Amino acid sequence: MTIVDTRTPEAKRFIPGATGDWEVIIGLEVHAQVTSNSKLFSGASTSFGSAPNSNVSLVDAAMPGMLPVINEECVKQAVRTGLGLKAQINNRSVFDRKNYFYPDLPQGYQISQFKDPIVGEGKIMISVGPDRQGNFEDIEIGIERLHLEQDAGKSMHDQHPTMSYVDLNRSGVALMEIVSKPDIRSSDEAKAYITKLRSILRYLGTCDGNMDEGSMRADVNVSVRKPGGEFGTRCEIKNVNSIRFMGQAIEYEARRQIAILEDGGEIDQETRLFDPNKGETRSMRSKEDAHDYRYFPDPDLLPLEFDDAFVAELAKNLPELPDEKRERFVRDMGLTVYDASILVSEAAIADYFEKVAAGRDGKAAANWVINDLLGALNKSGKGIEDTPVSPDQLGGILDLIKEGVISGKIAKDLFEIVWNEGGDPAKIVEDRGMKQVTDTGAIEKAVDEVIAANPDQVEKARAKPNLAGWFVGQVMKATGGKANPQAVQALVKQKLGIEE
Ligand code: ADP
Ligand code: MG
């Protein structure tokens, strides 16, 4: 049995406890790997899946005397992202050393940004729902900051019985840390937030958003409070690498905290890890041994400065982002917000849709792309980039419907043929005799036959004209779906003596 949660997004924001409702407060720190060919401060490659330690320059290995040199492309990517998040761009920012010891951090410090990040406050609109009325609600989640920093290498403990190995390929790769305000109020909102953030990053081309490959991961801060009360003490769940796990981790963690508080206990501010096998979070380190990173400005690097023209140039070349696209689809193409949201979720889907819709009915195009194309892709586990039906082919099917050459029903069959075998839809219809029958003589014959065979239904339909639809269905069946439905409808009504 599946239990469907029918609570509204509003209601979902509260978790009932023994002492009444609790509110969950969530803030996310997302690490997004910058899309760039080379690392933040060196020329080594960032390609994923290379042989261990093959993408390591002397800078990344922290050889004595090596000096970091900022990669301009990474700076541009961070600014683009800031613009996409409608954020404050800081023309002057500072790189600091964040000192800590880790076997996969040969420098002994991470170059990051602390007091003066490259990007300040911004925002992301998320949409949650549907509620019982089918409505979606747009909620604004504040962005606190975005800063640039280096990634560390990777220790590998499972390669040798007595030794640990280290792979420094990731060492020095540019990351953007995007910190949200504690504005998120449920696991659904958190999932919507990270989904939207990933969509924006992908539209911008600043991060591939691939959580499986670790190019995007989140630290999830969770606390609970009585509605409207003071913020509670938070716990931070480190390195969550899937959207589903993030939802599970929040649900578990919020309930864990509520149970402690309702038992009269206190929450220790600590760092926790999510165990996907158990569906639980467990303590990793408490605040008592929290690090003192001894941040200070990196003496090897000058403050990062650029002028307004640099930002303006990047702003000018920014692509249309999902929110603006959604607005345009609703405004210019008459789509519902819901349909438009689905179509803009990925830039490639939106592009596909726009090609199909060009010069055609937007709503019809949206229906076919969402229900038929995305439905079929979903079922076969394919992404839009692997679609066997091109926009031209789908457009061709729509044209055949519009011109009355095929019925909507035959169009579904035609779609399946094109999906499986490819080919030009018009030619397939021609070759396989799928054209709609508009010849009234043939349709009339079929209508007469159905009427003659069902005298009872005829009686009923005369009394209750709605039942004419049943006859239309029978005639469509009898003609293998090829009769023109409008012609059938008209003939049925005429023969039954039902007024239009
Ligand atoms: P740090 O983790 O480095 O100490 P911050 O204190 O700025 O950094 O907070 C990091 C994240 O924790 C932010 O995303 C912020 O929104 C979130 N956060 C802050 N206070 C709370 C709270 N009481 N409950 C949940 N999240 C919180
Ligand atoms: Mg933190």
Automatic annotation (TrEMBL):
Pfam families, per the entry: GatB_N (PF02934), GatB_Yqey (PF02637)
Listed EC numbers: 6.3.5.-
Listed GO biological process terms: glutaminyl-tRNAGln biosynthesis via transamidation; translation
Residues in Asn/Gln amidotransferase domain copies: 351-496
Protein biosynthesis as UniProt keyword: yes
Keyword Nucleotide-binding among UniProt keywords: yes
MF terms (GO), sorted A to Z: asparaginyl-tRNA synthase (glutamine-hydrolyzing) activity; ATP binding; glutaminyl-tRNA synthase (glutamine-hydrolyzing) activity; transferase activity
Catalysed reactions listed for this entry: L-aspartyl-tRNA(Asn) + L-glutamine + ATP + H2O = L-asparaginyl-tRNA(Asn) + L-glutamate + ADP + phosphate + 2 H(+); L-glutamyl-tRNA(Gln) + L-glutamine + ATP + H2O = L-glutaminyl-tRNA(Gln) + L-glutamate + ADP + phosphate + H(+)
Superkingdom in the source lineage: Bacteria
UniProt keyword list: ATP-binding, Ligase, Nucleotide-binding, Protein biosynthesis, Transferase
PANTHER family named in the record: GLUTAMYL-TRNA GLN AMIDOTRANSFERASE SUBUNIT B MITOCHONDRIAL AND PROKARYOTIC PET112-RELATED, GLUTAMYL-TRNA(GLN) AMIDOTRANSFERASE SUBUNIT B, MITOCHONDRIAL
NCBIfam families: gatB (TIGR00133), PRK05477.1-2 (NF004012), PRK05477.1-4 (NF004014), PRK05477.1-5 (NF004015)
Subunit structure: Heterotrimer of A, B and C subunits.
Similarity comment text for this entry: Belongs to the GatB/GatE family. GatB subfamily.
Function recorded in the entry: Allows the formation of correctly charged Asn-tRNA(Asn) or Gln-tRNA(Gln) through the transamidation of misacylated Asp-tRNA(Asn) or Glu-tRNA(Gln) in organisms which lack either or both of asparaginyl-tRNA or glutaminyl-tRNA synthetases. The reaction takes place in the presence of glutamine and ATP through an activated phospho-Asp-tRNA(Asn) or phospho-Glu-tRNA(Gln).
HAMAP family registered for this protein in UniProt: GatB
Name of the protein described by the UniProt record: Aspartyl/glutamyl-tRNA(Asn/Gln) amidotransferase subunit B
Gene behind this protein: gatB
